[in-house]
């Protein structure tokens, strides 16, 4: 029997509401982005045949499809006890993810340098196509590896353009830094994936968390320990308020995304690391952070295109049957930040449960702080739009041009004693 999912009945693409609470004297008590109309997509996977899940996660999200694709397949691999992929599979998946990062970030750089942004987007899409995903929804990864290696012709075409892309990306990052925009302080932690060497890595195998003061809270935790790392204060809610288990609710709030990626450790790309140091010294904003992460992606892609494993080698390892009553966790640092898929297998060949923690859900407390500050300092919705662009939730409103987001602001007056 064929199932039909009408996605426009799940998410209103034009929904963008801010709730502002004012005290009896008119001062702003709090402001938050309303996520209540955005039911979680976890339920779409729970109860599904495990063998069908790869096809489902390919189209699970139209905004961050590559990140969901990779995280979902990783979670299935964990259920199958796969701990190591072939070098070719690792390289092809990395190319897909880095291309997706450039393709996603590029539109947010249009106002800074339109020509460079268009070049970055085209290059990112070309990289994704070379990795086996020419359409909007990716089909590159399969449990155990990838469908095929990158062709030599596609690799050579990307190599011809890579140097120009890096040059243009660096120029955009320089322009973003020159704006001198400072990011308001965030009282929570920063969380991102890192490599075994401790460098921020969008497909890293370890999770690192640092406090607002820069002290290390988690140095490098594995996905297998997820349940002891992060929990949801309101499980299953569209706004679950996740927190670091070691610190508990409230004190354990954190953010993810380019800003967090730049704060958890030094980048491995030499050019990107230099820009990162300037960003940290200046207390830069999310726009500059995104541009610097594009530089990092471009540097990584240049090195990746010189790797022989990208075009030749075994593409997959054998996949064992998915055992019953197991927990598998897959994660990637998507363009907007950490995305986690946690699956539990049942005894009937289906997923007993599925938990998907998106960057939007994790950044909701940070966005609330930004919105509260914006509402307290101005009655103009433009300041709130700026706050939404900073946190960059996985919603269509984030891509709206400046002044065109059309935020609906609902104000609630709190009486005495509230």
Give descriptors for this structure.
418 residues, alpha+beta, four-stranded mixed beta sheet, three-stranded mixed beta sheet, 10 helices, globular
Q: Can you offer a commentary on this structure?
A:
It is a single chain. The longest helix has 27 residues, at 152-178. The protein is α+β, with helices and mostly antiparallel strands and 418 residues long. Among the domains are: 86-181 and 285-318; 183-267, no CATH class. It is globular. Strands 7-6-5-10 form a 4-stranded mixed sheet. Strands 2-1-14 form a 3-stranded mixed sheet. Strands 11-12-13 form a 3-stranded antiparallel sheet. The protein has 10 helices and 14 strands.
How many DSSP-defined strands?
Answer: 14
Radius of gyration: 21 Å
Order of helices and strands: EEHHHHEEHEEEEEEHHHEEEHHE
Give the CA-CA distance, first to last residue: 52 Å
Level of helix content? 25-40%
Average pLDDT, all residues: 90
Strand content: 15-25%
Low-confidence segments, given as residue ranges, are 5-14
Biggest sheet features: 4 strands, mixed
Structure annotation, total helices = 10
- Oligomer type: single chain
Per the principal axes of the C-alpha atoms, what is the gross shape?
A: globular
Main-sheet strand order equals 7-6-5-10
| Coarse structural class | alpha+beta
């Amino acid at each position: 029997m064929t199932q039909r999912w009408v996605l426009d009945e799940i998410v209103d693409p034009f929904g963008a509401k801010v709730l502002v609470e004012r005290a009896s004297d008119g001062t702003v008590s709090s402001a938050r982005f309303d996520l209540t109309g955005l039911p979680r997509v976890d339920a779409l996977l729970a109860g599904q045949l495990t063998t069908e899940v790869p096809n489902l996660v390919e189209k699970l999200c139209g905004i961050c499809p590559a990140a969901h694709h990779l995280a979902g397949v990783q979670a299935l691999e964990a259920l199958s006890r796969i701990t190591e992929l072939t070098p070719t599979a690792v390289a092809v998946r990395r190319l897909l993810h880095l291309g997706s990062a450039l393709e996603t970030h590029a539109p947010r750089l249009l106002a800074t340098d339109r020509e460079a942004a268009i070049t970055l987007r085209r290059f990112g899409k070309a990289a994704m196509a070379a990795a086996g995903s020419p359409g909007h929804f990716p089909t590159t990864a399969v449990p155990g590896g990838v469908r095929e290696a990158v062709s030599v012709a596609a690799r050579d075409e990307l190599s011809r353009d890579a140097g120009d892309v890096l040059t243009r990306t660096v120029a955009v990052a320089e322009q973003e830094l020159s704006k001198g925009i400072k990011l308001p302080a965030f009282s929570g932690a920063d969380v991102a994936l890192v490599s075994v060497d401790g460098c921020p890595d969008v497909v890293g195998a370890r999770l690192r968390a640092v406090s607002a003061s820069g002290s290390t809270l988690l140095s490098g935790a594995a996905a297998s320990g997820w349940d002891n790392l992060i929990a949801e204060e309101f499980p299953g809610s569209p706004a679950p308020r996740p927190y670091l288990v070691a610190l508990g609710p409230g004190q354990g709030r954190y953010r993810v995304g380019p800003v967090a990626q730049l704060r958890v450790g030094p980048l491995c790309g030499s050019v990107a690391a230099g820009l990162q140091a300037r960003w940290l010294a200046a207390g830069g904003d999310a726009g500059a952070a995104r541009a610097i992460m594009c530089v990092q992606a471009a540097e990584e892609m240049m090195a990746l295109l010189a790797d022989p494993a990208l075009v030749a080698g075994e593409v997959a390892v054998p996949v064992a049957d998915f055992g019953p009553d197991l927990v598998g966790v897959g994660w990637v640092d998507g363009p907007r930040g950490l995305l986690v898929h946690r699956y539990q297998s049942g005894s009937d060949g289906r997923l007993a449960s599925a938990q998907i923690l998106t960057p939007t859900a994790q950044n909701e407390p940070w966005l609330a702080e930004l919105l509260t500050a914006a509402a307290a300092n101005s009655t103009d919705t433009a300041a709130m739009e700026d706050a939404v662009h900073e946190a960059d939730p996985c919603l269509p409103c984030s891509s709206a041009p400046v002044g065109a987001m059309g935020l609906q602001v609902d104000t609630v007056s709190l009486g005495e004693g509230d």
